[in-house]
């Protein structure tokens, strides 16, 4: 059901107003219909009361010709108003039921006219089922009464006055609901939809267009490339103030990021220079083991510094997006490790092209493969296309045969400077930034990085699966 509902503010507001208007007009139509029914009931009850009080003895006829125009006696006469009837028989026919609500209404009207009522009966039947009408139609099988009577409901009232043993029977057709009233409600609804919903659509468009532009601006902010010009405020005053505030915030953030880049460049230069000098000076150390440990320490510091600088710069990449075939990129990474004699295997892949920053994505895959080799002795990489929740994803998986990670530590492993216990110690190398950098690169491309323990047939952990999911 939710998939058919509009997701935008513009669509949801219009749908809400349209539904509210539809409900209001439906309630209005129901109330109008009920009021019309009440008027018809009251009018018919008054007609019955008049007949029962006045007891007209005349046979009212209207001269009508076959073409519907009134003529004299030569044109023929057709009965239009049913005569009063006096009978000793009960007015209720077999199978008919009394109608207490209508009896109560007619009873009140007759009492107001001073009629002493011994018994009052009100029922309804089809006009053509009435014995008086049937008697009149015996010689005329084709209906010749007023068109509005045909197929309508006929109210029959039987009154027995106090001290009288005969029934006085009156008949009156119940008017049909006026279709013009319903057409009026429909026309009114259409006009309201045209004026109200149309006007609201124009207003919402004036609000939603600058909001949509602002949304695209926020989504693309920090995505690399030259800084765009500030947005031009538009729309209502509230929206203009929001855009102005966003421009100011964007300028402040851009200034802070520029200062960060300058600071990182200075840190990288100021730290790498003395590290290079130390690397030269340790050559004078005579003890080979000591010299090797010192050189390894310098390499660790340099590698950690590179990871920190890369992690800081991943949010503002300078290289542009390029359409890259992901399976070819993964295959190139596998070839690099194969050339070094590392046990890295290329699994099943699918051809998927996407705009990526190839240098950064290649580094993320290398970090995952490096972890797999460090803790699982071998790595297997695959690329697949998957559909989930109405979206398509490119999924890059790196699997190892290592000990896995305890479930309660998986989330923490993606945080900076976090290493696992046991075999995932400082002695195995790394500063705990590889997974953090890989996650940042995945998020830079709008994707995610997740770690999942592989469960074997025996229920034990058969290794770790690192999965980069990039939306297509």
In short:
With 472 residues, the chain is of the alpha+beta class. The protein is built from ten helices and 13 strands.
Question: In words, what does this structure look like?
Answer:
It is a single chain. With 472 residues, the chain is α+β, with helices and mostly antiparallel strands. The protein has 3 domains: 10-180, no CATH class; 237-313, no CATH class; 322-471, Heat Shock Protein 90 (2-Layer Sandwich), CATH 3.30.565. It is 48% helix and 18% strand. It contains 10 helices and 13 strands. The chain has helices spanning 9-54, 100-112, 131-136, 179-220, 237-281, 288-313, 326-339, 358-376, 410-413, 434-444, and strands at 61-63, 77-79, 85-87, 117-126, 153-161, 167-174, 322-325, 344-346, 353-356, 379-388, 391-399, 448-455, 461-471. The strands form 4 sheets. It has a 5-stranded mixed β-sheet with strand order 8-10-11-13-12. Strand 12 (448-455) and strand 13 form a beta hairpin. The longest helix has 46 residues, at 9-54. It is elongated. The protein starts with 8 loop residues before the first helix and ends with a strand. Mean pLDDT is 78; it is low at 57-80 and 421-427.
